[in-house]
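Input:
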Amino acid sequence: MSKLRLNGVSKAYGATLALRRGDLEVAAGEVHVLMGSNGSGKSTLCKIIAGSVRPDAGQILINDKPVTISGPQAARVAGIGVFYQELSLANRRSVEENICLSALPVKAGLFIDRQALKARAARYIALFSQVAGEGFHAQALVGNLRADQRQLVEIMKALASEAPILIFDEPTSALDRAQVDRFFEILRGLKAQGRGIIFISHRMDEITAIGDRVTIIRDGETIETLKLSDIDPATVIRLMVGGASDMPAARSAAPAVVETQAKAAISVRNLSGKGFRDVSFEVAHGEILGLGGLHGQGQSALLRAIFGANPVTSGAVTIGGERYDAKSPRDAIRRGCAYVSGDRGRDGVIRGRPIIENVTPIHYLRDRLMIARPSRLRNKAMPALEAMHTKFASLFHPINSLSGGNQQKVIIARWLIDRPDVLLLDDPTKGIDLSAKADLFALIRQLAAEGLGILLYSSEDAELLGNANRILVFNGGSVTRELTGDDRTRYNLYQAAYEAA
Amino acid sequence: MTAITTFFKQPLVVALILIVVLLVLGESLSPGFASADQILRLLIVASLLGIVAAGQNVVILGGREGIDLSVGGVVSLSAIIAGNVMNGADGGILPAVLACLAAGAFFGLLNGLGVTLLRIPPLVMTLGMLGVLQGLLVVIRQGIPSGRAAPGLSAFVTQPLLLGIPGIIWLWIAIGLFMALMLNRTVFGHRIYAIGSNEHAAYMAGVPVRLMRIGLFMISGMFAAIAGLCLLGYSGSSFANVGEQYMLSSIIAVVFGGTSLAGGKGGYTGTMAGALLLVILQGILTTVNIDESGRQMVFGATLLFLMLFYGRGRAMRA
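Output:
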């Protein structure tokens, strides 16, 4: 008998099919692993089970009975407990309150039953008492805890639901070895009770240690379900990558490096900061260096730190042979650094303001302008916008009137009026259409050919394989592998990304 | 939506129409309300408010819940400083101007430092500053004569200077031009809109966000100080809390003029119309014998009504 079964579940957001076809069967007493690369649809699948996303089609069965999960509360009632990757904790409340937050014990229908709450929370806190570390106790405020301790609270919260079906979406990313071992012991206990557990992790060693079966998702489709004891990690990766996995990236795809100057455009030595550690590399003039790996392994954090937006704890950056310590983006821009974020709503777009004011801020700074004369600015802005093939009716229309792709082109154009020496691209094509992507990469290559040093992080592996001369694969905040020449294959990229950290 | 309805939905147009309506209403209630002399007098009072509102305007445009509740305190303090420095002598006008500007800049600087370095919300920071200023006013006035306006200053504010129009109105027009140029044609102005619209994006584009914000509060303090000086010229001598009413009315004038309290949207032209509108409204309330407390109630209700009217498109807290 299966605890949970999904038959042909699908979900589209507008024109994008996030999940084409999801079939999943979780048996009682098993840990069922879900694997798939960034954007393959596994988080959509989880959200459908957790009730935060309604599927467009398909069927969900719990204990072989069809159910409709209309929202998170309905999922709880149906017996589904969820560990959320983006922690869902209340920072200003205590550990015990957080553990019981989704079902606070109540007396007389109104008041919190503190005795019952303490007793219930204590059971789950006791499970991890050996490994939780200093400062972890029932009354501690969650906001004062370390990252790994907060993650433990989130785990306890999921366990406290006592749900027959549990989903853990990357529950171990911040935990240390002892904490993971203890967690796995607890999971084995739950298995013995006949619960069904869905487990998502990117660490191959953990998957083989705890998983019974694995379902692989690729391009929004569940490809295959296999017993983990029957297969080796290489097979799993091959299935995730799909066909043509060993083909090297087309040689013509990445431009040749123009070695015009002896000095590197940018060199980074043993750089550490929040989210990344001990990263070293050099980028030559005219080179595109790709940063690969799973999402959130330190690539963005590194780029933001180089740009001065995040603090650096140790190490050195040199640009054009000169030591460079950017304390703010303002410093970085003055030293010839440019940064384009994929999160343009947060980092780029000045909403409600005319296109021209969205193109010129870097020019203001680098030319130390005081007066903004529209005619002069127009002459500066037009070539930059044209280089990006930006479509707009008037420079004085608000930037919000443009499509997402054109907005991103405007944001990129602001770096083209005064050419930078180093271009940092932080997943620049997120959420933009295909033709805008093509325009963007054509420009990036042209800029490389003109001698810029370019760092490119992309959550789409094809963009890295197609454009980067070299790829550094990030895992757990540091570079675990460098792929050059014919090694730049999808298979190698995945393998390095999924290796145990 | 046709061009005509768009035109009539612009806050500036709405304010101008309301100005005409209120003038007609005032004239019908009390003949002579809209006479040339009366309108000049209303313009003088409006320019005092308009000058305070210019500073309020830039602070609000800068976003992050920017607001300056201490303007009224600075106006009062500045009137007292000016009165004591010039003490009825024309030779004291220039030192008084400098002293007032310095005081306004100083309290603006404190506001700005509190908001940026200590991360105190502007609402709390400037409200606290208002309390400090009110206490300071009581201390200063103990046993010391409050001083008198120099004749030259009074003439500047109340007597015709050029084309039969008093100097203060010319000053207001000059400030209007200055504000329009600053907001639309300088890098500083574009950056005010940038930090008000998306502070993080502005930071990532190299805008010195903290320095800008401190500057905006200093501008607000200095405009309030100029208004306090002129207010002394208008009333001849200063009295305690002479500037009290400007806290609420400067905010209403800015909102009336179409500047969003969420920041990043609006301008000074509308604020000027808003200031004029408020002063006319105040005049009408006076002619129908509604006293100060009643006027305050009407003003407060006006602000809440405006929020209802303009605030629907976008939540106040971004």
